[in-house]
Amino acid sequence: MPKYCKHYILFTTILSALLALTACVSEEEYADTPQGNFQALWHIIDEHYCFFDYKSKEYGLDWDEVYRRYQPQCNSSMTARQQFEVLTNMLAELRDGHVNLYTAFDMGRYWSWYEEHPANYYDDMTDKLLGTDYHIANGMRYRVLDDNIAYLRCSTFSSDLGEGNLDNILLYLAPCRALIIDIRDNGGGLITSAEQLAARFTNEERLVGYMQHKTGRAHNDFSPMQEQRLKPSQAIRWQKDVVVLTNRSVFSAANEFVKYMKQCPDVTIIGDRTGGGAGLPFSSELPNGWAIRFSACPMYDVNKQSTEFGIEPDIHAEITDADRQNGIDTILQQARKYINEHTH
């Protein structure tokens, strides 16, 4: 069969060493038919997805069995939307929020990683906490609470946070005795932004985890583990206690932020297990032009354990139904209680 070259585009800005992964990779050429698109998608994932062995152990994923189950569902009489449904159902078997299929009419996504769990965050509660006299810097909202605890709401890492913004925030909050960073419902973004914020909470370089690169087409073809190290910021750094609030909708770069903060001094994670998403996403294309994004480089914590399915908090807390009805943010209250009991 003739060969062609596809470019895998790096979705997340990170270490320059990863740029080498954007080189051309030879793939089989498939026809632009429902069966051809199915074959192309299954083989792209089979040869380049990074979590097969891990998910086989976690819940028994068998990608060959997935092929046998979905391949007969594709036929020449299918409409584009029917084809899309079959392909997205197949991708959902991976249980990975970093796997998406993009078309002109829809985007295939897997959301059960948080839909099957309590929300543990409500915008109206945060709005009530912040009131109207809070401050805003590049989308980050912050204020001093009435018990002299600083509160910073960071809802996304989708853009550079700005070193000047972080300097101004930390300088303003400096008189406070502790800081609460609320990243609940933060779906991620740029890992560099997660590092940028985490670097404000360490005075020395720290090992925060590991990552690998895919080196071949077999499911377990990976490079040796490479260290991820967090360097302290050269600007203003926080020197007091920190509590990070989490829930199941903390994903991707925000999941990495929690991983980094767990290695920083005087940091406590309170809330629910994070959503995970521990693979750097890359993309390719099907014969019909649809784009596929998938996890290609696995990342691990300092114990070399995958964080694909999330990170446990130091203190588990949930918003109860009764507290929700009364407008009480149980997780935030637990954080304030912890600070009041452990700081002076």
Describe this structure in words.
The protein has 344 residues and is α+β, with helices and mostly antiparallel strands. The chain is built from 11 helices and 16 strands. The strands form 3 sheets. Strands 2, 4, 5, 10, 11, 14 and 15 form a 7-stranded antiparallel sheet that branches. A hairpin with a 4-residue loop joins strand 7 and strand 8 (149-153). Helix 8 (191-198) packs parallel to helix 9 (253-261). The chain starts with a strand and ends with a helix. 40% of the residues are buried.
State the end-to-end distance.
Answer: 71 Å
Low-confidence stretches: 1-26
Overall pLDDT, averaged? 90
The total strand number stands at 16
Fraction of residues in β-strands? 15-25%
How many individual helices?
11
Content-based structural category? alpha+beta
Helix content: 25-40%
Q: Sum up the overall morphology in one term.
A: elongated
Radius of gyration: 22 Å
Write the element-wise H/E pattern from the N-terminal end onward: EEEHHHHEEHHEEEHEHEEEHEEEEHH
Largest sheet: 7 strands, antiparallel
Can you give me a brief rundown of this structure?
With 344 residues, the protein is α+β, with helices and mostly antiparallel strands. It has eleven helices and 16 strands.
Name the features.
344 residues, seven-stranded mixed beta sheet, 11 helices, alpha+beta, elongated
Lay out the secondary structure.
Elements (H helix, E strand, L loop, with lengths): L2 E5 L1 E2 L13 E5 L5 H15 L3 H8 L3 H8 L9 H13 L7 E3 L4 E2 L3 H4 L7 H8 L4 E3 L2 E5 L4 E5 L9 H11 L4 E5 L8 H8 L7 E6 L14 E5 L10 E6 L6 H9 L5 E5 L7 E7 L5 E10 L14 E2 L4 H5 L4 H13 L2
Parallel strand pairs: 8-9, 9-12, 12-13, 13-16
Antiparallel strand pairs: 1-3, 2-14, 4-5, 4-15, 6-7, 7-8, 10-11, 10-15, 14-15
Helix pairs in contact: 8-9
